[in-house]
Specification:
alpha+beta; single chain; two-stranded parallel ribbon
Length: about 90
Amino acid sequence: MNRHGLRSHNDRQEVPGVTVPTQMITALADTDIHPEEGRRAFACAAARDKCLHELSGADHYLRPVAGGDPRVHAARELIVPWLRARWPL
């Protein structure tokens, strides 16, 4: 439950059924899905190949809350390298 008494989509029962390579990126300044909810969802994923990244300074939509743009960092440093490592061109 979040501070509004609602459950986030991270609590869905489908997460344990995820077996494909999984990269989860959570935002530490997210006030909708709290970091611990993301960690619980990540822990439930059944994928053998999975990684979790937590972005500081980013809100729910990865918009910056303080200095720099976390979306650029996420794309350049996390998403693209992760994809290339698994599906090289």
